[in-house]
Amino acid sequence: MNEILILGAGYTGMAATMGLVGRIKGRDDVHITLVNPQTRFTERLRLHQVASGQALADLQIPDQLAGTGVDFVQGWVTGIDADAQTVRIDDAYTLRYDTLVYALGSVADTELVPGVDEFAYTLNSAQDALLLAQHLDRMADGTVVVAGGGLTGIESAAEIAEQHPGLDVVLLSRQVPGAMMGDKARARLHAGLDRLGVQVRSGVDIIKVMSDGVALGDGEVVAAQAVLWTTGVRVSPMAAAAGLEVDERGRIVTDESLRSVSHPNVYAVGDAAAIRQGYGVMHGTCQSGIPTAVHAAASIVRELKGKQPKKFRFGYVHQPVSLGRNDAVIQFTHADDSPGRFYLAGGPAVAYKETVSASPWTTYRLIKVLPALGASTWRRGGRLTR
Ligand SMILES: Cc1cc2nc3c(=O)[nH]c(=O)nc-3n(C[C@H](O)[C@H](O)[C@H](O)COP(=O)(O)OP(=O)(O)OC[C@H]3O[C@@H](n4cnc5c(N)ncnc54)[C@H](O)[C@@H]3O)c2cc1C
Q: How many C-beta atoms lie closer than 10 Å to residue 289's C-beta?
């Protein structure tokens, strides 16, 4: 029996699973196991909505897997033995694999600045987002600092400001929020944040987080009753500890087919993978992660058939940013994620963003039937998004 073990049932782990299910139909020599700590799927790209008090659909992973033959294991991966080809679950037992799909994602990097781990909220999990939501509910007034002006920070600041108009929301960032966008889209983004009352301060360096605010590099203290940390992400040290070749950020270095360069029976996808394209190493998004997962699934099945996996190619399409529930900006991009000429804003951008972020269950059903439809778009590592 060929044992395929998928670690992590986030956006990419689920996509790899459903991609495999669609491709191995009828084969009784292949067995798939999916490991995740929770049975409920985390719609990570909507966690800023949870943090601002909104409820999301209850998407249960076992429901999605019903009838597929995939075994779901609820547990926490605590170690990998790449030589023995086993994975340790909850420090209690091991699972064996012939092929491993490593899809453990990333979390906010809370280790670089003192006080973050102790005093700041994160959007690392639905539970973490809920903790912030509960705290904000208890605040009748006061200040919320959102640290980090990347897309997660922008979306969070906008969402909190819209859902809690009585609170002052301050977005603190080294870079100008939306720096990666073109001038017009960025100007529109700032107008949207301004309309929602978000105070944007860029060029600032947060050097410490405290129980009552944050300290900046120039000595100023910004008082706050809640701090949300969104500056950059880090990955699990588990791949490095297992002896897999990783980059300077701990992501698994892959070959052109998304296999680990040091351990070719390990495929790495999504945020946890360092995947080189012509324009450089990809950065983690759902937009890019789901195609990596679908490609890995197709490659595993090719290998099972004794064929060589194909090269993965990917070009970015857009930078989609929600500004609360009623506004958004979509910067369309070149393949390397640099801004193109066009952008959308307002109602059409909201509709676009909601379409591409629509229930992942629909996306996974599509991924499952794609091979049956003979579609080749995913295999080309094409420009489909989540
Ligand atoms: C607020 C927010 C908004 C975002 N908006 C967008 C957007 O609009 N567009 C976009 O493209 N991207 C967006 N992103 C980024 C996107 O969510 C990630 O790039 C994407 O989730 C990466 O998918 P993944 O499968 O690699 O990781 P994840 O989706 O994080 O999944 C990882 C899974 O692994 C599990 N896991 C982790 N460690 C272990 C372990 N030790 N044992 C077992 N399981 C484990 C986790 O519980 C999780 O289920 C956003 C992110 C955030 C936080």
A: 27
Residue from 283, 286, 331 to probe ligand 1 pocket by mutation (most atoms less than 8 Å from CB)? 286
* Separation of alpha carbons 60 and 66, rounded Å: 10
| Ligand 1 pocket mutation pick from 52, 95, 100, 285 by most atoms within 8 angstroms of CB | 285
Which regions of 90-163 does DSSP assign to beta strands (E)?
A: 93-96, 99-102, 107-108, 143-147
Cβ–ligand 1 contact at 206 (below 6 Å): no
Could you tell me how many residues make up the chain? 386
* Dihedral (Cα; 48, 53, 56, 58), 10-degree rounding: 120
Query: Which residue has the least CA distance to atom 35 on ligand 1?
Result: 8
> Is the Cβ–Cβ distance between 201 and 208 less than 8 Å?
no
Q: Which residues contact 305 (CB under 8 A, 6 or more apart)?
A: none
Task: Please name the amino acid found at residue 334.
Answer: H
Termini Cα distance of the chain: 32
Q: How confident is the model at residue 373 (pLDDT cuts 50, 70, 90)?
A: low
Which stretch of DSSP H or E encloses residue 36?
Answer: strand 30-36
pLDDT band at 227 (very low <50, low <70, confident <90, very high): very high
In the DSSP assignment, the letter for residue 45 is G
Q: Which of 331, 322, 386, 381 is nearest to 360 (CA)?
A: 386
In this structure, what are the phi and psi dihedrals at residue 19, rounded to the nearest 5 degrees?
A: -65, -40
Q: Is any ligand 1 atom within 6 A of the Cβ of residue 48?
A: yes
- Tell me if 129 CB under 6 Å of ligand 1: no
Percent of the chain residues topping a pLDDT of 70: 96
Cα–chain center distance at 170? 24
User: Rounded to whole angstroms, how far apart are CA atoms 37 and 50?
Assistant: 19
Verify whether ligand 1 is closer than 6 Å to residue 232 (CB atom).
no
Ligand 1 lined by 286 (C-beta under 6 Å): yes
Confidence band of 66 (pLDDT split at 50, 70, 90): very high
Smallest Cα–Cα separation from 182: which of 384, 321, 323, 350? 321
Are 346 and 327 in contact, with CB atoms under 8 Å apart? yes
- Whether the pLDDT of residue 191 is over 50: the answer is yes
Closest residue to atom 20 of ligand 1, CA basis: 286
What's residue 372's pLDDT?
58
pTM of structure: 0.94
